[in-house]
Amino acid sequence: MSEKPYTRKPLQEELREELEHMNLTMEDLQAISNLVDARMTPLKAGIKAMNLLLENDVLPRLQNIESCYTSTYRRYAQGIEQQESQESDLYIMKKVIREHSEKLKQLSANRL
Predict the structure, then answer these.
(1) Is 24 helix (H, G, I), strand (E, B) or coil?
(2) Contacts (Cβ under 8 Å, ≥6 apart) of 32
């Protein structure tokens, strides 16, 4: 015995069958539609207000924060390169000073 695969009915057909069982009239459907519209209106207004707030207040602030962070990052990146260069120069200077100190000690020992 092979089972028939489950296939779902189209949504419109399912809704039509449900409505037939409910015995709703067009006036009932219109009243439900009006209630849904009445509840959606404040939601739409709230969403619009939120979008305006995001666009006019939050987004510019985020862009400002982003620009501050990126400029700070660039300064730090340049500072790191400069610090590495200074460390390299300092290493070379220490080496030269040690060598010169040794040579001065040798010259001083040879004079005595």
Answers:
(1) coil
(2) 24
pLDDT in tens, 3-27: 666 677 787 888 777 777 777 677 8
Alpha helices in the chain (DSSP H): 11-22, 26-53, 59-111
| Residue at 58: amino acid letter | V
59/65 Cα distance (integer angstroms): 10
What the block records as the tokens of 42 is 């404040």
**CA gap 111, 105 in Å, rounded:** 10
- Classify residue 54 by its DSSP letter: I
Q: Which residue is it, tokens 């969403």?
A: 47
What does pTM read for this prediction? 0.46
Rounded to 5, what percent of the chain is helix, strand, coil?
90, 0, 10
Phi, then psi, of 4 in degrees rounded to 5: -80, 130
